Structures are given as C-alpha cells and as structure tokens.
Amino acid sequence: MTDELNGTSNNGPIAATKIAAATPTKSLPVTTKALEEQTVEDMAGKWSDFTFAPIRESQVSRAMTRRYFADLDKYAESDIVIVGAGSCGLSAAYCLGKARPDLKIAIVEAGVAPGGGAWLGGQLFSAMVMRKPAQAFLNEVGVPYEDEGPESNFVVVKHAALFTSTVLSKVLQFPNIKLFNATAVEDLITRKTGEGKIQVAGVVTNWTLVSMHHDDQSCMDPNTINAPVLISTTGHDGPFGAFSVKRMVSIGGIEALGGMRGLDMQSAEDMVVKSTREVAPGLIVGGMEISELEGSNRMGPTFGAMALSGVKAAEEALKIFDQRKAECSEGGKW
Ligand code: AHZ
User: Fold this and answer.
1) CATH classification code of 65-328
2) On the CB side of 79, how many CA atoms lie within 13 Å of its CA?
C-alpha cells in the first residue's frame, strides 16, 4: 500500500523510489503539523501562496486501480452479498457491518448513486415518513426526526437524503464492507441440492453499462462473486428491479411471483417485514422485492418497512450463515 501524500510505501523501498522519481519536485508549504491535525483554518488568508501537493497522473490512476482490483480479488469470495443498495439493502448492510466485523460483505448496486428510491419522499417531496416503531432504526443510526406527539403514529425526517446519506456514510466506513456501484447483478450462481432444490451460491456481475448493451454488442461475458448467502433487495419490478426473484422463477427455483399489488399503507408495511426471509436456500429477499414475490401491496412513501426489513434480513442472514457456508464455501462441497 502506498501513501501518496507522504510518498512512502510499505511495498518496500523499490516502490517508494519509483514513485519519488516520477513525482514533480515542487513541494508543499512546510508545516510541522501531522496530516490529521491540519485544518482549513490553517489556510485562512494564505491563498496567494496556495499550492496543492505535487502529483503525477499515473499516481492517481494507480491509487484507484490498485485498490479496486485488490477489492475484486478480496471479495471474489464474500461471506454475504447484498444486491441493491436502496433503503432496505443499506439498512441490512449497516446491521451486518455492525454485528459481524469478521465477515466480508459485498454490496452490488446497479446505479452509480446508491440509495435507490430513498433520496426523496413521495412525489419527489423532501420529507421521509417512518411509521413507529421504525424510529428505533433512526435512533440507532443517529438520524434526527420530528415527532408530532404521543398521539402520532409516525415520525418525519426533514429530508429523505438525510436518512440515506447518514446510513450510507456509516455503511461505507465499515472496513469489512465493499460497495461495488455501477455494477449490475445479471445472473445468480446456483447449485442443485441433494433434495433437488436450487441453492444460491453467489452472483454474476457486469458493469451496468455493459449489462444495458447485451442487445447491441457481441457477447460480453460477466464476472462472479461466490457467497454462501445473498440478500436481494432490488426493489419492485422495473428495468433492474425484483431481479433475483424473477431469475429464480425463470430457472425453476421459485414457483411463481405474486406480483406487487396496489397501494395499501396500512397492510403493506407489516407484510414486507413479516415476509422478509430465506425464500430459497442461500437467498434472503427483503424490501419491495419481497412484495413482488408475495403478491402483497405497496405502501408508497412510508419507509419504516424498508429499514426494518433490512434489520430482519440481516438477522435472517446470520441465522443461516454457518450452515450455508459449510455447504457452499471454498472448503465446503461446492
Ligand atoms: O438500482 C437499484 C436500487 O438502487 C438496485 N438494483 C436493482 N436491480 C439490481 C441488480 N443488480 C444490482 N440486478 C440492482 N442492483 O436495487 C436498489 C433497490 O432500491 P429501491 O429503493 O428501489 O428498493 P427498496 O426495496 O430498498 O425500497 C423501496 C422503496 C419503496 S418503493 C414503494 C412503492 O412504490 O410503494 N415504496 C417504497 C418504500
């Protein structure tokens, strides 16, 4: 690993020398403060002499690619893969990252921007409504909310983006979680169990932009991530949505989809949380994807079920993890 700011390397003296030789020589203004102690106040009023630390383009390229390819290598065998980083997937990731720092958790998100439909409330309004008792999750992650009093059955976060950015920033800080965004799951890795069931053992991935062009370019083969447990939270049907349950139906791992029904806030949220579970060996489904499977109602712009379905999905994943890992990790039968 190389610390580009300091020009030092723990890859040994050769790597350090190469970088030093390639770097332009203009140096930073002298400061005796350690990196983490330097503040923007130190710069105040000194803009005429301002200069960034020198850099060469290849250093930037290597800083990105070395880390990305190391992550691809590391997470090629993951413990849990979360497909879809919407409100449900991010909530599940938060709970797993907190509960099990020993597990390697990969999140694969088709969009460039993680967050799914949780950057805004309904009809593109700002506020996010969460029915009680989902405020417990807001307390957990430290998102402030307004409570209209003991008679009120819901709380309101002033902007949905405050929820999403807070959960996202916590998730990204866990050292055992890697988010692969702009990357689509375009198939599942599956095995046949002794009982003739289809077990999920990982995901088949591609750059989303590549996935979108299979119809107009010749074969562009995918990449893979092996994992004994998959949490799929790809939302309701859409260009990429309800991905895993739809694929499982097409390969006979699930009989049929109920198809998401019309809006009924009252019943829909309970159903999402109650139905969140392992729907086929190794595949846990949560969020609106489970409504597509169950044929239950949508709730529209109330997000408590998404957060708590994520909490439950994480709990379910940890319940089955040891057994599924024994069955289909590198050392297991698959
Ligand atoms: O980009 C998708 C989104 O960020 C991502 N995704 C979908 N298919 C994927 C694939 N590979 C990788 N094949 C994929 N990523 O999954 C994310 C889903 O987020 P979401 O916000 O759409 O779903 P959610 O279930 O977390 O939250 C649903 C929010 C809704 S919709 C709704 C209604 O219409 O009634 N109500 C609520 C609360």
Assistant:
1) 3.50.50.60
2) 19
